[in-house]
Structures are given as structure tokens and as C-alpha cells.
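User: Predict structure, ligand S-adenosylmethionine.
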Amino acid sequence: MNKAAFDWDAVWNRKGREDTELKALCGYNHVENVNIDKIAASIISDLEVKQEDRFLDIACGGGFLSSAILRKAPDIIYVGTERSAVIARKHRQTLGNAVLNFSAHEAVFHDDFFSHCLCFSAFQYFPSHDYAKEVLRQMLRQARRAYIGDLAIKSHDDSHLLYKQDEVVSWIMDICGHKASIKVTEGHFYTTRFNVIVHRP
Ligand SMILES: C[S@@+](CC[C@H](N)C(=O)[O-])C[C@H]1O[C@@H](n2cnc3c(N)ncnc32)[C@H](O)[C@@H]1O
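Assistant: Predicted complex:
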């Protein structure tokens, strides 16, 4: 499959127009036994989120994970961004969160505006590794701590963009230098996925 030819935007916009419940709107309908509150707790712990911290959630989708994060840390200043206008609108209307219609690679906020930046389960939909590197650059520019979640090493879907752990770590070191703390953890749903947590100086 030519990944560049696959139109993920059409898939997400269609999902956004359907009358579907939150879990399916965020693409988790095929994943069994999702404990989203446990995942949110682990993200909050890895990022060391505190009350009143500014938290940017890139590719936040309809808000399945965002809701769990806000249940666990209701006092953060939350902003989501989402490429699909229809999904961003649905998220705002149903959950009332601050959600802007931007793509992940766009430079929206100034340097270090946020304490934390999360991008969970979206890197597989990106068009290329160059695009993914730009997203990492933007994440680590806007926040000192970043959680890149659910990167696929292998996938059931051959139109997903795949990643290698060592390669992603080396991209991050190129962006923020060798003094950054970079932790790689196993995926929350599958052993063929991984997460990267970065605390830059
Ligand atoms: C699997 S959902 C995950 C949503 C949310 N992060 C969660 O875990 O609940 C993937 C979302 O990424 C969005 N997305 C895909 N490519 C994107 C991009 N380049 N920029 C921003 N959002 C993107 C899709 O529109 C979709 O809403």
C-alpha cells in the first residue's frame, strides 16, 4: 500500500459525521478491554503533571482520552488541537473543552507556552516520517515535557505509518540534544506499539 495515497483525513471526517459514541469516534472500537482511566493516570504520572499546568493535547480527536485526563487532573489548563474540523467541533460541543482546528505539524503556540504536550495514537495516520519529525519538533518546542503515545512498530492495518524505537529516539536527540531524558515504554494496547516520554532541559 502506498501510504501517501491513503486518505486518512477522509476516514476521520466520515467518522466525525457519523452518529457514533465517543470510544468509536476516537478509533478505539476495535480495541478490547480499554482501560482509558488507567492510561490517563500513567500519562499524568510519566509527565509529572501538577495542578494549573498548561497541557496541550495534539490530535485530541473526539475526546475519549482527554476526558479521562481531565477526570484525573481537573485543574489543568487543557487545550486540544485536532485536524478534522468536524471532530474538533463535536468535541467542543459534547464535552465543552477548548479544541482548536489545527494539524499536528502547525506551529500554533509560542515556545514553552505549555508545560506538557501529548500526542496519543495519531502518528500512524501521518503521511511520512518527515512529517512526524516536524510534529516532534513542534511538540518539543511548545512544551518541555512530551508524551508520544501508541507508536506502531507493526500493525494489522498496512496503511498505518510504522516506526522503529531507536529511530524515534535519535530524531528526538537531534531535536533537543543529549541532555534530554527519554524513556520508552511498551504500548498500552499492544506489545507492537510503544510510547516515548521526553523531559527536555
Ligand atoms: C485514534 S484518534 C485518537 C484521538 C485521541 N488522541 C485519543 O487517544 O482519544 C486519532 C485522531 O488523530 C487525528 N489526526 C490524524 N492526523 C492528524 C494530524 N496530522 N494532525 C492532527 N490530528 C490528526 C484524527 O483526525 C483523529 O481524530
